[in-house]
Each structure stands twice: as C-alpha cells, then as structure tokens.
Amino acid sequence: MSAYSEKVMDHFQHPRNMGEIENASGVGTVGNAKCGDIMRIFLDIDDDGIIRDVKFKTFGCGAAVATSSMATELVKGKRIEDALKITNAAVMEALDGLPPVKVHCSLLAEEAIHAALWDYAEKKGIKIEGLEKPKSDIHEGEEEEQEDY
Ligand code: FES
C-alpha cells in the first residue's frame, strides 16, 4: 500500500496545468530551502479580477507536484479574493490527505500562488485585500517544526 491517496497518485502521474504562460499577469516563484525544491506559478487574470488560466512548473517532489496540480485546479476560474482563501489545508483535503512528513510540500503551492498574486498586484499598482508579502523561502523565520512528526 502506498502512503499516498489515489488522488495524490493521480495528480502526480497526470499533473494538471503543467507548463507556463507567456506574458502572464503574475508570476510567483518560491522555494523550500530544506529540500531545495522550487515551484513557479503563472496566472492569467482578466480585467474583472478572475483567474482565467494558471500553469505551474516545479523542480519538486511528488507531493509538491500533486499539490500544485490540485491547487491550480482549485484557483482556476476563481476571483482573486476567493483564490486567496484556498489554503494548503484545503488543497490537502481535496487530495484526501498527505502523509504528515509531506505536509510542508503543500505549502509551496499556496505560497507560489500568493507570490504570483503579489506580482500581479505590484504590476497593476493595486493592493489585494488580505494578501501579505509572500516569502520566497517558505522556511524563512520558521522553527524546525517538521522534525517532530
Ligand atoms: Fe521538497 Fe516535498 S520534499 S517539496
């Protein structure tokens, strides 16, 4: 038995929305200093603030691929403020869970989406309510908490 749910395996083996968007409205790149994995998200946002398209690229582990794939599916077609509410916990739930040691991998997708939205807001000169400046390294200033799992 794999430690991964069928949904995780499916999204890992058949990732949705992999690739890049030329002239994207916003691009966000984040990394995990511990494992060295990197994720980049491209967003295409229309004038009504709706995410029309989203693509991702990753140099990451299987769980990072699966969570990014699911996260892109969840934000596609959403308004910016609704996309902001999609947390890594929601992504994991949609995937029927992740093994505890892989929970941190799901943060890459959430942070990369926030970084892409931040980039979009900066380009447009607007402020997105509730969006904080994302960290480029998801472990910046964080305690060694994964070690306890
Ligand atoms: Fe690095 Fe999963 S081990 S993102």
Brief descriptors of the model:
149 residues; alpha+beta; three-stranded antiparallel sheet; 3 strands; globular; disordered C terminus; binds FE2/S2 (inorganic) cluster
Low-confidence stretches: 141-149
Beta-strand content estimate:
15-25%
The helix-strand sequence is: HEEEHHHH
Helix content: 25-40%
Distance between the termini: 20 Å
Strand elements, count: 3
| Principal-axes shape call | globular
Cofactors and ligands? FE2/S2 (inorganic) cluster
Q: What's the total helix number? A: 5
Mean of residue pLDDT?
A: 90
The secondary-structure class comes to alpha+beta
Gyration radius, rounded: 15 Å
Q: What's the main sheet like?
A: 3 strands, antiparallel
Q: Order of strands across the widest beta sheet?
A: 1-2-3
Could you describe the 3D structure shown?
This protein is of the alpha+beta class. Helices cover 38% and strands 15% of the residues. It is built from five helices and three strands. The protein has a three-stranded antiparallel β-sheet. A hairpin with a 5-residue loop joins strand 2 and strand 3. Helix 1 crosses helix 2. The longest helix is centred in the last third of the chain and has 22 residues. The chain is globular, with a radius of gyration of 15 Å. The chain starts with 5 loop residues before the first helix and ends in a 25-residue tail after the last helix. FE2/S2 (inorganic) cluster binds next to helix 2 and helix 5.
